[in-house]
Amino acid sequence: MQQPERILIVDDEVEILRTLEPALRAVGYYVRFGETGLEALNLVANEMVDCVLLDLGLPDVDGVEVIRRIREWSVVPILIITAREGLDAKIEALDAGADDYVNKPFDLRELLARLRVALRHNARRSEEGTGPTRFDDLVIDFAQRAVTLRGELVQLTQREYQLLKLMATHAGQIVTHKQVLEGVWGGDHKSDAQAVRVLMGQLRHKIETDPVRPKLLLTETGLGYRMRAAK
């Protein structure tokens, strides 16, 4: 019998725990919870965890610092649940290594959907290299470094391929401009957000049916981009 996926909730709001714990258990997840950043670090370090639902406003260690510390040794998916307003806080959390975020107050259905995406991404990461990844008519074979669209080979430049690979391996998750710069240009300071937009435009023209209204490589205004998750 398959073991239930293990979700760690880290939040000091009692009402959040009262809402989330029974909802997650009802759909088959095993739930652990903590109220502080130090508890989160201890649980991730010492127990098997498949995903962390993390509040940023913790009473001891700021949530962004918790993300940074976890990322020093773990790739466990981290889904932020936050009441912080503004793009800066979200960008900071994503750049620190969070996989996605949901604003408080949140719709439980949206949270569960984003949780499923994070868990699927984690499963794909562990299986990377076992075979091609399909996004409808687009197929990416990482082992062969080959991209086909409706059965036809797509010719990509090195940076276009690196961008597509970055987006595909984080499908369903937000990838910030900074993460693209580091992943494609290696943090080259001569490149900037405009260079990212130009490169994204080039890639869309090669793989989107309508590059002006993309359905695969989506823009997250002010944050970066999200590739629609593979089915």
Notes on the structure:
The chain folds into two domains: 6-126, 3-Layer(aba) Sandwich (Rossmann fold), CATH 3.40.50.2300; 133-227, Winged helix-like DNA-binding domain superfamily/Winged helix DNA-binding domain (Arc Repressor Mutant, subunit A, Orthogonal Bundle). The protein has eight helices and twelve strands. The chain has helices at residues 14-26, 37-46, 63-70, 87-96, 108-126, 158-169, 177-185, 193-207; strands spanning 6-10, 30-34, 51-54, 78-82, 100-103, 133-135, 138-141, 146-149, 152-153, 174-176, 217-220, 224-227. Strands 2-1-3-4-5 form a five-stranded parallel beta sheet, with helices on both faces. It has a four-stranded antiparallel beta sheet with strand order 6-7-8-9, with helices on one face. A three-stranded antiparallel beta sheet has the order 10-12-11. The protein is globular and about 50 Å long.
What's the layout of helices and strands?
Blueprint lengths: L5 E5 L3 H13 L3 E5 L2 H10 L4 E4 L8 H8 L7 E5 L4 H10 L3 E4 L4 H19 L6 E3 L2 E4 L4 E4 L2 E2 L4 H12 L4 E3 H9 L7 H15 L9 E4 L3 E4 L4
Parallel strand pairs: 1-2, 1-3, 3-4, 4-5
Antiparallel strand pairs: 6-7, 7-8, 8-9, 10-12, 11-12
Helix pairs in contact: 2-3, 6-7, 6-8
CATH H-level homologous superfamily name of the largest domain: Response regulator
Largest sheet report: 5 strands, parallel
- Tell me the overall shape: globular
Low-confidence stretches: none
Radius of gyration: 18 Å
Lateral arrangement of strands in the main beta sheet: 2-1-3-4-5
Structural class: alpha/beta
Order of helices and strands: EHEHEHEHEHEEEEHEHHEE
Instruction: Report helical residue fraction.
Output: 40-55%
Number of strands: 12
| Number of helical regions | 8
CATH architecture of the largest domain: 3-Layer(aba) Sandwich
* Overall pLDDT score: 88
Strand content: 15-25%
Terminal Cα separation, in Å? 24 Å
Query: What is the class of the largest domain in the CATH system?
Result: Alpha Beta
Number of domains: 2
